[in-house]
TrEMBL record:
One annotated GO molecular function: transcription cis-regulatory region binding
The keyword DNA-binding appears for this protein: yes
Domain Myb-like: 9-61, 62-112
Gene3D superfamilies reported for this sequence: Homeodomain-like (1.10.10.60)
Localization in the cell: Nucleus
Name of the protein this chain belongs to: Uncharacterized protein
Major subcellular location class: nucleus
Family matches, as SUPFAM superfamilies: Homeodomain-like (SSF46689)
Any one of the GO CC terms: nucleus
InterPro entries (alphabetical): Homeodomain-like_sf, Myb_dom, Myb_TF_plants, SANT/Myb
Taxonomic lineage from the root: Eukaryota, Viridiplantae, Streptophyta, Embryophyta, Tracheophyta
Bias (Low complexity) ranges: 197-209
Pfam assignment, any one: Myb_DNA-binding
Keyword Magnesium included in the entry's annotation: no
DNA sequence: AACTCGTCCAACCGCGATTAG
DNA sequence: GCTAATCGCGGTTGGACGAGT
């Protein structure tokens, strides 16, 4: 379609946000709630594109963000979730309250990858380095292409569906102990069994609307009420 | 003190999915 | 059903900063 990037528009600021811009954005969201990103910059008096505003809010200004360094428990949880869903950062973030997909993605690329490599583990396959990929091995972890994500909701795998269905607001961090090696292997087994063998969508795969529901519920980024938003 | 290099992370970008008209 | 607008995601970039020389 040849759409031009919103960042290319003239008279929009780029780069690091100033305190003034942050304040304007937070104040606007506090008054009007989250959403309507396209019209937000104008309404808030910001010379930014909506996309930039959304990113700034989600990754930095949201009041429920945890920030600070990751705990060992979070590390392990990220590794385990990554071994199941691959680079689906928003899904992983949905299981780590207070953490953003961008934060987790950065943390993965700068810390966890190196940590795994130093242990002789391939960060992509989660298998020992040099070990050939074997699609029949139930312990083989994989990165799921987008079209396979709906399988997370496949009725044949209720525990996985449930695992990813929880809204962030009502979820608590999964205790790493709750996902021991056996359960983890089972999770992989169930996933492998439920995934279509080809890239064609499975007959019983959920509709796109269902997929949206999964995405929305797992990202847990619903509208915040003004009371929830506090200027920091 | 000045320079180089490596690391970290906020922000940019492109694109697919979804929604609205 | 089609098209354009909008949203959200994942990959990538680049600037700030600290460590080393």
């Amino acid at each position: 379609m040849g759409r031009s990037s919103c960042y290319e528009k003239a008279r929009t600021n780029k780069g690091t946000w100033t305190k003034e811009e942050d304040h304007r954005l937070v104040t606007h969201i506090r008054l009007h709630g989250e959403g309507g990103w396209r019209s937000l910059p104008k309404a808030a008096g910001l010379l930014r594109c909506g996309k930039s505003c959304r990113l700034r809010w989600i990754n930095y200004l949201r009041p429920d963000l945890k920030r600070g360094s990751f705990t060992e428990e979070e590390d392990e949880l990220i590794i385990k979730l990554h071994s199941v869903v691959g680079n689906k950062w928003s899904l992983i973030a949905g299981r780590l309250p207070g953490r953003t997909d961008n934060e987790i993605k950065n943390y993965w690329n700068t810390h966890i990858k190196r940590k795994l490599l130093s242990k002789g583990i391939d960060p992509q396959s989660h298998r020992p380095l040099g070990q050939p990929y074997n699609s029949n091995n139930i312990a083989v972890s994989r990165s799921l292409p987008d079209h396979e994500i709906p399988a997370l909701q496949n009725p044949r795998t209720p525990e996985i569906a449930d695992f990813f269905r929880h809204d962030r607001s009502e979820s608590s961090p999964i205790e790493p102990a709750a996902l021991d090696a056996e359960e983890h292997a089972e999770l992989n087994l169930n996933l492998c069994m439920s995934l279509p063998s080809t890239s064609a969508p499975a007959a019983n795969s959920p509709s796109s609307a269902d997929r949206t529901a999964v995405s929305n519920s797992t990202s847990g980024r619903g509208l915040l009420t003004p009371e929830m938003v506090e200027w920091r």
